[in-house]
Amino acid sequence: MEKPALSLSRNKKYTSKNTDIHVHLIDTHCHVFGPQFSEDVSLVFNRAKSAGVQNSLLPNIDSESIALICAVVENEKSAKPMWGLHPCHVFSNWKEELSKIEPLFETHPAVAVGEIGLDFYWSKEFKSEQKEALEFQLNWALAKNLPVSLHTRDANPEAIEIVKPFAEKGLKGVFHCFSGSFEEGMEIIDFGFCLGIGGNITYKKNPVRDFIGRFPIGSIVLETDAPYLAPVPYRGKRNEPAYLVEVVYELANHFSLSPDEISKTTSKTAISLFNLGLS
Ligand SMILES: [Zn+2]
Q1: Residue 185 forms part of a structural domain
Q2: How far is it, in rounded angstroms, from Cα 86 to Cα 90?
Q3: Phi-psi label, residue 170: left if phi above 0, alpha if psi -120 to 50, beta otherwise
Q4: CA of 225 to the centre of ligand 1 (A)
Q5: Is the Cβ–Cβ distance between 179 and 154 less than 8 Å?
Q6: 227 alpha carbon to ligand 1 midpoint, in Å?
Q7: Does residue 168 have a cis bond before it (omega within 30 degrees)?
Q8: For 4-20, what is the mean pLDDT?
Q9: 0.85 cut: is pTM over it?
Q10: How far apart are CA 82 and CA 115, in angstroms?
Q11: Tens-digit pLDDT profile for residues 234-257
């Protein structure tokens, strides 16, 4: 017999030890392809399904990761590709890279354009190219009627400035691995985008923890960003979609909602945003 999920009083802490999750989850951003997963990728997806993760969305990096993603999605129905050029991989040859990526939308239908964005943390050398490549790919998304998965690091004001006019034209998407102020988060939500929340919300020093519970839960989607940013208690290890449940428990505590309520609401948002066609 299943035990009821909402068995704890509002002020108790939810953990995987005292509550089960009965609702399916969507990992809206994970890199389960490439060398970190070459030995055990099918086991990783089996564990994901056992943990209730019905879909894992795989954002592309550059032209070299295309074959890796294709190999995974051809064997694993729960994995869905996104096609785009990651901002850390935007160099002077970005147009050539995009010309290699765009045909994939025809051969391997994508759930989003991603991962695209701006990253001024690692390097500002190709700042103007990053902005151009972002706009170019935002236009792809509008033309192809797809949402976007955005990566922004040390670049929220610039990214918001570029993305907002597209949102006003109807573009949807997610600021994946959201980091920023409450005001930035609300501005993003107000123009109709979602915030992607992952394992680093379990890190005690993450400033987003101070105000995450004030965002509307209907504008949040879950992600692992595997193999990076493994949640506590796996911090420092390789991350994988099955660990998404730890993000659910963390959010349940911040929002004073049950893990099932967090799962149900975030999955509904993700299914609608990425048109996953699940019930
Ligand atoms: Zn990513």
Answers
A1: yes
A2: 7
A3: left
A4: 5
A5: no
A6: 9
A7: no
A8: 64
A9: yes
A10: 7
A11: 999 999 999 999 999 999 999 999
Q: Is residue 38 part of a domain?
A: yes
Q: Calculate how far, in angstroms, residue 17's C-alpha sits from the geometric centre of ligand 1.
A: 29
47, burial (CB in 10 Å: exposed 0-12, middle 13-18, buried 19+): middle
User: At 77, which CATH number?
Assistant: 3.20.20.140
Residue-wise pLDDT tens digits, 43-101: 999 999 999 999 999 999 999 999 999 999 999 999 999 999 999 999 999 999 999 99
The CA 56 to ligand 1 mean position distance, Å, reads: 12
From ligand 1's centre to the CA of 279, what distance in Å? 26
Cβ(226)–Cβ(238) below 8 Å: yes
Task: Tell how far the Cα of 35 is from the centroid of ligand 1, in angstroms.
Answer: 15
**Tokens 């099918």, residue located:** 42
Q: Residue 213's pLDDT is what?
A: 98
What average pLDDT does the segment 174-181 reach? Answer: 97
Distance 39 CA to ligand 1 centre (A): 21
E strand intervals along 1-105:
25-27, 53-59, 79-83
Q: How far is the CA of 179 from the centre of ligand 1 (A)?
A: 14
Q: Which domain holds residue 265?
A: 25-273
Number of domains in the chain: 1
**Distance from Cα 31 to the centre of ligand 1, integer Å:** 6
In angstroms, what is the span from residue 155 Cα to ligand 1's centroid? 16
224 C-alpha to ligand 1 centroid (Å):
9
On whether residue 253 sits in a domain, the answer given is yes
Structure tokens at 264: 């149900």
Q: What is the mean pLDDT of the chain?
A: 94
**pLDDT at residue 11, as a whole number:** 52
In a domain, 3, yes or no: no
Cβ atoms of 141 and 148 within 8 Å: the answer is yes
